[in-house]
Amino acid sequence: MSIDRDTFEKTSEDELEELSVPDQVLGFLAANEDRAFKAREIASQIGVDEGAVSTALSRLKDRDLVEHKATYWAITDDAERLDGYSGYERATALFNQQLGTEDKESWREHAPEEPHPSVEDER
């Protein structure tokens, strides 16, 4: 996975140490916690081989850190479980440093009026 030159220059070597594939997968899913993805979509987004992503997802599922339904994967909503996984904290910190923290209000401003078809109507 590439980084921009500014991040390269301002980040320490320890912080730039490459994240493991499970950490990258978990970090991606955490950044997109309101969505579920197919393994190939995750692989494409993080720039890692699909086989490696599938293996990582299986291992993360064994630790109850991700959920799997049909061909889709999502991060667990068990915050306590995630807090106990040290890679999650490291991945989140690195992604926040590189990309900035999410501003949920900004996301809401650009959200569509209608829910995505995959979201069940809660009304």
The chain-level structural class is: mainly alpha
Major β-sheet strand ordering? 1-2
Largest sheet: 2 strands, antiparallel
What percent of residues adopt helix (DSSP H or I)? 40-55%
Order of helices and strands: HHHHHEEHHH
Oligomer: single chain
Shape summary: globular
Number of strands: 2
Number of helices: 8
Whole-number average pLDDT? 79
Q: Which segments are poorly predicted (pLDDT under 50) over 5 or more consecutive residues? A: none
Radius of gyration: 15 Å
What's the N-to-C terminus distance? Answer: 41 Å
Work out the strand percent: 5-15%
Plain-language structure description:
The chain is 54% helix and 7% strand. The chain has 123 residues and is mainly alpha-helical. The chain has a two-stranded antiparallel sheet with strand order 1-2. 20% of the residues are buried. The mean pLDDT is 79.
